[in-house]
Amino acid sequence: MSALILDGRAAAARILDDVRARAALRAEAGKLCPTLAVVRVGDDPPSVRYARQLERTFRGAGLAVRLEVLPPTIDDDGLAALLRALSADASVHGILLQLPLPAHLSRERAAEEISPDKDVDGLTPLNAGRLFLGRGLPFAPATPLGGLELLHHYGIGIAGRHAVVVGRSDVLGRPLALLLLRENATVTICHSRTPDLPRLTRQAEILAVAVGRPGLVTGDMVAPGAVVLDFGINVVAGSVVGDVDFASVAPLAGAITPVPGGTGPMTAAVLARNTLTAAERQDGRAAP
Q: What is the mean pLDDT of the chain?
């Protein structure tokens, strides 16, 4: 069996083509350039690299990124004040708070300071609650949504299939499970205290792995023909690898995301689309 490689770069390019066209129409109408404020505390190297990637992606799609870097000594009040100011700034259409925050800062308090209308990565309690309840038009976290968009791009069905999500973080594993449920998958969530993990992963028709442990899932843990989504980004000996051991899993899988080049590019593309959609909603025009 030769697995279908789910190329996130190609799928992201299609999303960005649509964003570029919509942004051009907006510019022709004389409206403000959709702008994402990226808020970072300190200079965590992966966060710095990600912000640079976002700047390139947004610029190429006709959007803008405004970087706000706070010192690592900032307190909760200082971070909250910036987030409130950005929420009130009409020239800012989306806000992305880069995680993780330093240990002395409260992510929960910070999330509550972001306007839900500008919460393009689904961090606020209101958007998270709407996603949980299946109500309204919430912004879902871009990384799990990007994974589902990748399945859609390749015409891979979700409804009625058994999806196993390895990882329960509130920024990836849990929202991914909710998004899969919304598309009528049967979902099992596994985590660090799940006994006999291989028994459950072998049941998956769609297996999504998001735990941050390189090579956690190996070929003997995957059912033949399964669709495997690897959300892991780990640096090992100077190379970026996923949570899935690609070499042993790819010969068995029906489809698989590579790392890099799989789910990663989709995150930036979905954030760009969410930022444009936020701008359209804020100026009173419904997104097409």
A: 96
